[in-house]
Amino acid sequence: MSGKESLKKLAVEAARKALEMADFDPNDLDLILMCTSTPEDIFGSAPQIQRELGCRNSPLAYDITAACSGFVLGLISAASHIRGGGFRNVLVIGADGLSRFVDWTDRGTCILFGDAAGAVLVQACDAEEDGLLSFDLHSDGEGGRHLGAPINDNETDELLGSNGSALDFPPKKSSYSCIQMNGKEVFRFAVRCVPQSIESALEKAGLVSGNVDWLLLHQANQRIIDAVATRLDFPQEKVISNLANYGNTSAASIPLALDEAVRSGKVKPGHTIAAAGFGAGLTWGSAIIRWG
């Protein structure tokens, strides 16, 4: 972000472009999922995006907080709402503004992260046309210490009593720390868990890596992307990467890269994509998708 744009503005712009590409009226949306870990309102941003899009029928809108895995979880949530809840048209937005939460004196983190938004429209269809072929999702709270941005501990100790109640009145405003990351541990986690997740999803879909046209990973680190591709025997020409242009944009990275690949003609209707998100939580997951 330039400093003059809000995350909501980026998300709305991405949403409008996705709807225009699909030639779809926002008034026909049943659900809006805003996948973000950096909302500009502590209670979430999705309803404000619904308002900005001008949806007259008041579709449900809510946030999903899962950091760099957020967009994959949003896709799975959209499919679950459609398959089990009778929803027809779901807008999934991935958007994050991580530049607000980095320590600009720490080159181990500040040079890695960017701000962006991307979106896709997920629609109901007949079973034989279902584009979500399989998925695999996981969390490990034990590993959360390696990547996070918690409320400052010293402030928490001063603000709250042993039962969690505020000690002072009026309560002091708490703040979050900058992003803290153990890069070596996050790398080890990603190159171990992501290939396993993709292999599991492929097995559920009855496919092998040779059946997949494109590998689309969360754009966290080129070494991670290369290592995962190597472990899965994906040739570089089948790997989608735009990391060099935008950095790690968290929940926005997969839809941003997908949008560019589709608009450039690289990804075509009928192509099979193995997508995977991974990051803070720790959370990770993959989805095998047939585009179009």
UniProtKB/TrEMBL annotation:
GO biological process, one term: fatty acid biosynthetic process
Signal peptide: none
Enzyme class: transferase
Pfam family membership, one: ACP_syn_III
Domain (Beta-ketoacyl-[acyl-carrier-protein] synthase III N-terminal) ranges: 62-141
A GO term, aspect molecular function: 3-oxoacyl-[acyl-carrier-protein] synthase activity
InterPro entries (alphabetical): ACP_syn_III_C (IPR013747), ACP_syn_III_N (IPR013751), Thiolase-like (IPR016039)
Enzyme Commission code(s) on record: 2.3.1.180
Stored SUPFAM superfamilies: Thiolase-like (SSF53901)
Pathway where it operates: Lipid metabolism; fatty acid biosynthesis
GO cellular component: chloroplast
Keywords recorded for this protein, A-Z: Fatty acid biosynthesis, Fatty acid metabolism, Lipid biosynthesis, Lipid metabolism, Transferase
Domain of life: Eukaryota
Domain Beta-ketoacyl-[acyl-carrier-protein] synthase III C-terminal, residue spans: 202-291
Catalytic activities: malonyl-[ACP] + acetyl-CoA + H(+) = 3-oxobutanoyl-[ACP] + CO2 + CoA
Its biological purpose: Catalyzes the condensation reaction of fatty acid synthesis by the addition to an acyl acceptor of two carbons from malonyl-ACP. KAS III catalyzes the first condensation reaction which initiates fatty acid synthesis and may therefore play a role in governing the total rate of fatty acid production. Possesses both acetoacetyl-ACP synthase and acetyl transacylase activities.
UniProt-listed PANTHER family: 3-OXOACYL-[ACYL-CARRIER-PROTEIN] SYNTHASE, BETA-KETOACYL-[ACYL-CARRIER-PROTEIN] SYNTHASE III, CHLOROPLASTIC
Family: Belongs to the thiolase-like superfamily. FabH family.
Protein name according to UniProt: beta-ketoacyl-[acyl-carrier-protein] synthase III
Native organism: Gossypium raimondii (Peruvian cotton)
Source species taxonomy: Eukaryota, Viridiplantae, Streptophyta, Embryophyta, Tracheophyta
